[in-house]
Amino acid sequence: MQHTLASRRNSLADHLSSTEQLHSEQLLQLVRAKIEAAGGWLDFQTFMDLVLYAPGLGYYSAGTHKLGAGGDFTTAPEISPLFSRCVAMQCVEVLRQLKQGSVLELGAGSGVMAVDMLREFEKLECLPERYYILEVSADLRARQQALIQQQLPQYLDRVQWLDALQADFVGVIVANEVLDALPVQRFCIQQGGVQVMGVSYTDAGLCWQPRAADDTLVKAVRAIESNLLFSLPEGYCSEVNLQLPAWIGSLGDSLQRGAVLFIDYGFTQSQYYSVDRTRGTLSCFFRQRMHDDPLINVGVQDITAWVDFTAVASAGLAAGMELEGFATQAHFLFGCGLDRLLTDMSEQPDEIRWQLSQQVQKLTLPGEMGESFKAMAFSKDCNLQLSGFAFRDLRDRL
Ligand SMILES: C[S@@+](CC[C@H](N)C(=O)[O-])C[C@H]1O[C@@H](n2cnc3c(N)ncnc32)[C@H](O)[C@@H]1O
Fold it and tell me: Are residues 146 and 201 in the same domain?
């Protein structure tokens, strides 16, 4: 088993270029120093935070090519501008009902969604007062600025990058595939108790090491079991996002009036912690290949966990917001008018229409992103009718 793991690790590591190897080695030195300083062990959440966001070295903070066809993973805005146009239409609906407001995009990746949304706002003659971006990665922030400068220089003064959430925000907060990038805690059930999975190292490299969980994690796992009405079985491993309530709480505090829209891959809690899903949802992406070993390729691969939308809903309600809707990505996009966008393009050449139909299939087919990705919206201090949830609203499943 050890041998198999070592060979698999080598075969994945073999793909690193010399620059990637150097970068990964530098981050590994930092990880080892942190492990040593912490007495030989780091809990997984701290490890994930470090390898994704350590300034200048973490996966999102360093200059590796992450998103799009030539990167490690592809997101909906990278697949098609139709996605961002639909999200923009949903934002316009809210901005018109509020009669004022701005848009705040969290974690804007390459900046392509901001560009396509701004184009759609212009077309619909409903430009937000400001288009704010809150991005934790300095590298991605620079890329976003360069893209907007190149594609929409006329709107550069309307786009503003924030270092922190503002107080009294009025408008729409949008986050596509950000929740899945937040560090999670990994746990396993052993002899009926909850163990927290942590990371240590030996001469062979980083390795998993369990410890008895602290009160916070035990309470979180027991609360999940109490919602599920059964105990998770012996040997069961999964993740829980302990930062979620505080993170969504800060969005609720910042929002004075308006809406928050999350789109991400995820499940309801009963699906997330289904007894069959014994190894959790942690996934790593390296050059469009998915695997489940976060302890290799540190700094040059993405690490994500699926989103527990029942926990997101609870956190939103606890933050003083109303839950406005929960739908699959396919239903959400069609509710926002994806089919109208396609009809408007019926005059386009065959080649373009073929490309668009391929993109729509990726975004909406159940075997692609249509069902595994979900949209969830909250409101605060306003009455909203959101078209994105008009087709099918799954709130009763949460
Ligand atoms: C998987 S990428 C998605 C990028 C983009 N939204 C898209 O759909 O293509 C995750 C993004 O969230 C950012 N991010 C991670 N944690 C964040 C946080 N706490 N606040 C804001 N952005 C964050 C990352 O730097 C990155 O831009």
Answer: no
Q: Are strands 237-240 and 255-267 parallel, antiparallel or unpaired?
A: unpaired
Strands 185-190 vs 193-202: parallel, antiparallel or unpaired: antiparallel
104, 105, 178, best to mutate for ligand 1 pocket (most atoms within 8 Å of CB): 178
Inter-helix orientation angle 138-151/112-123, to 10°: 40
H or E element in which residue 142 lies: helix 138-151
Q: What one-character DSSP code corresponds to residue 328?
A: E
CATH code assigned at 97: 3.40.50.12710
CA count, 13 A, side-chain hemisphere, 2: 4
Q: For the chain, what is the domain count?
A: 2
How many angstroms does the Cα of residue 233 sit away from the middle of ligand 1? 33
* Residue 346, SS3 per DSSP: coil
φ, ψ at 20 (rounded to 5°): -65, -40
Tokens 């229409």 belong to 353
Give the residue whose CA is nearest to atom 8 of ligand 1: 176
- In this structure, the chain runs to a length of 398
Together in a domain, 218 and 172: no
Cα(318) to centroid of ligand 1, in Å? 23
What is the residue range of 177's domain? 76-181+261-269+319-397
Q: For every one of its 398 residues, what pLDDT tens digit does the chain have, with 9 covering 90 and above?
A: 333 444 445 455 557 888 889 999 999 999 999 999 999 999 999 999 999 999 999 999 887 667 777 777 789 999 999 999 999 999 999 999 999 899 999 999 999 999 999 999 999 999 999 999 999 999 899 999 999 999 999 999 999 999 999 999 999 999 999 999 999 999 999 998 999 999 999 999 999 999 999 999 999 999 999 999 999 999 999 999 999 999 999 999 999 999 999 999 999 999 999 999 999 999 999 888 899 999 999 999 999 999 999 999 999 999 999 999 999 999 999 999 999 998 888 888 999 999 999 999 999 999 999 999 999 999 999 989 899 999 999 999 99
